[in-house]
């Protein structure tokens, strides 16, 4: 029997990697800032990603790129909640990328299936906002804050520290009543990490997956891929697919990506080779 992830009314079989499509409704995200501020345009993009095979759509109303400034709660609510309502009503599994408990509560009421928190539910009231219901949670590691996190990230042992933090946060969630099957962990590639830290964490996905919590990997178009390839953010599709494949080959259960169609194809090929070879003719 394969593991499952429960998120609101959805139960995902983790026998194949899931693809989470990114929908940033922000003026300043690093690769698509300003493109989806118009709600109709945002909905079209979400529906396109769904049709291309995204299992979840992750909506974010506050940029977390290095150097990003915080957004006030009212603006984040206005950007995110109408989209959650519209997509949830169409049966889409919607994740909401937020650190604010008030946004979490409003998004859950509007039908969000998963709360994706780059702060790992450390804000006061965040765990409680998610514990009262059946929403899934993604707990991400970040060193510092988006405004300054890339200035000088330092670790003794990056893998041990990230793993210990994520397990501690997952246990805090379980203690508050969030069932284990609702929890995803994420090393937070690029969040207070150098290229060397990111590569060490990518190689260590088996160690993170051995905790028993599904692992989400978010490497799509990130700066580390630019450092390796010398490409700009809009030229990092091949690098992003390579990174997603490297992550799932090491045991990641979910990849968070901008380019859904291409990533879904890559996952299907990987799945056919690695998992379904007995059944293919
Ligand atoms: C919002 N966001 C940006 N990058 C991310 C990543 O790598 N993981 C998760 N969970 N969220 C992210």
Brief description of this entry?
The chain is α/β, with parallel strands linked by helices.
Outline the structure in words.
The relative contact order is 0.13. The chain contains ten helices and ten strands. It has helices at residues 39-51, 73-89, 101-109, 126-131, 158-175, 195-203, 205-209, 223-229, 237-249, 260-274, and strands spanning 4-7, 10-13, 18-24, 56-60, 94-97, 114-117, 136-140, 183-186, 216-217, 254-257. It is 40% helix and 15% strand. The chain has 281 residues and is of the alpha/beta class. The model has no long low-confidence stretch (mean pLDDT 95). Helix 2 links the parallel strand 4 and strand 5. It has an eight-stranded parallel sheet.
How are the SSEs ordered, and which strands pair?
Blueprint (H helix, E strand, L loop, with lengths): L3 E4 L2 E4 L4 E7 L14 H13 L4 E5 L12 H17 L4 E4 L3 H9 L4 E4 L8 H6 L4 E5 L17 H18 L7 E4 L8 H9 L1 H5 L6 E2 L5 H7 L7 H13 L4 E4 L2 H15 L7
Parallel strand pairs: 3-4, 3-10, 4-5, 5-6, 6-7, 7-8, 9-10
Antiparallel strand pairs: 1-2
Helix pairs in contact: 1-2, 2-3, 9-10
The structure holds 9-methylguanine.
């Amino acid at each position: 029997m394969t593991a499952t992830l429960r998120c609101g009314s959805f139960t995902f079989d983790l026998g194949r990697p899931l693809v989470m499509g990114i929908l940033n409704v922000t003026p300043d995200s690093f690769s698509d800032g300003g493109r989806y501020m118009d709600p109709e345009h945002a909905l079209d993009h979400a529906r396109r990603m769904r049709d291309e095979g995204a299992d979840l759509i992750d909506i974010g109303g506050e940029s977390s790129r290095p150097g990003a400034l915080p957004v006030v709660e009212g603006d984040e609510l206005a950007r995110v909640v109408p989209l959650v309502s519209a997509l949830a009503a169409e049966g889409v599994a919607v994740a909401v990328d937020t650190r604010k408990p008030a946004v979490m509560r409003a998004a859950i009421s509007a039908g969000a299936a998963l709360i994706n928190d780059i702060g790992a539910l450390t804000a006061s009231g965040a765990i409680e906002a998610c514990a009262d219901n059946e929403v899934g949670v993604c707990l991400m590691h970040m060193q510092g804050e988006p405004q300054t996190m890339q200035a000088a990230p330092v670790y003794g042992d990056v893998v041990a520290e990230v793993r210990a933090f994520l397990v501690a946060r997952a246990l805090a969630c379980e203690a508050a009543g969030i069932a284990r099957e609702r929890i995803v962990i994420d090393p937070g590639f690029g969040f207070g990490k150098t290229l060397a830290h990111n590569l060490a964490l990518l190689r260590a996905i088996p160690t993170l997956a051995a905790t028993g919590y599904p692992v989400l990997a978010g490497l799509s178009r990130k700066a580390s891929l630019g450092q390796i390839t010398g490409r700009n953010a809009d030229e990092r599709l091949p690098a992003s697919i390579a990174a997603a494949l490297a992550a799932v080959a090491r045991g990641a259960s979910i990849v968070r990506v901008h380019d859904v169609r291409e990533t879904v194809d890559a996952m299907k090929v990987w799945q056919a080779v690695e998992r379904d070879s007995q059944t293919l003719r």
